[in-house]
Amino acid sequence: MTVTWEELGWERLAPGVGRCRLPGWDCTVGLVVGAGAALMVDAGSSLAEGARSRTRAQALAGHRVTHLALTHPHFDHVLGAAAFAGAQVYGAVGVDAVLGSRSGRAELRADAVRHGLAEPLATEAAEILPVPRHHVSGEWTLDLGSGRQVLLANVGPGHTAYDLAVLVPGDPEVVFCGDLVEESGEPQAGPDAVPARWPEALDRLLSLGGEDAVYVPGHGAVVDAAFVRAQRNALAARFGVSR
């Protein structure tokens, strides 16, 4: 029996493309379905959240998740990654300095606990967190079969030093932005943000997707190019960045 995106709590954005807003931190995970292959965008904040996302994604795809793209190294986007056993994991070049180091994993764990994740769950997920084996320095095209191609683009730094965007061509084109764009609140600039480069990263996003694309924030509702441009200008004013 075929299930629909809506029946599983997902939002269909284009044929074979959708996303789910996870509870707790309103973090988005995305799915792109190909022929015998499927790409997840981000993994959630815990192993249990990652496993639930994987199970629902595989029900929608009709086969297993074969690829996982991590948009940036924050706990609510990466700590579910170990639930995607066997998937090829992609991240911006250099992200292994965070995800693969003892100090980086300790900070992810501590940040998760500070935000309310139970300490045993945060510790378990951080200890077995997979390090991306595919490092995107510019752009990387994934072939998911039957003409379905996805572009991974290293558009940062901005929200972090390692921001990866995912462009899905089609009608409409869909751009998964990670936390470079947020709709449900003001963009968060933590100690690992690079404010002087953030507006430039959003310029790259707009160049990738264009005026008619659907832009998927890391948190919040889907937005359009005008929203991304307004957020770009607000960030430039906030951090004193000129064109």
Automatic annotation (TrEMBL):
<protein>
    <submittedName>
        <fullName>MBL fold metallo-hydrolase</fullName>
    </submittedName>
</protein>
<feature type="domain" description="Metallo-beta-lactamase">
    <location>
        <begin position="26"/>
        <end position="219"/>
    </location>
</feature>
<dbReference type="InterPro" id="IPR001279">
    <property type="entry name" value="Metallo-B-lactamas"/>
</dbReference>
<dbReference type="InterPro" id="IPR036866">
    <property type="entry name" value="RibonucZ/Hydroxyglut_hydro"/>
</dbReference>
<dbReference type="InterPro" id="IPR050855">
    <property type="entry name" value="NDM-1-like"/>
</dbReference>
<dbReference type="Pfam" id="PF00753">
    <property type="entry name" value="Lactamase_B"/>
</dbReference>
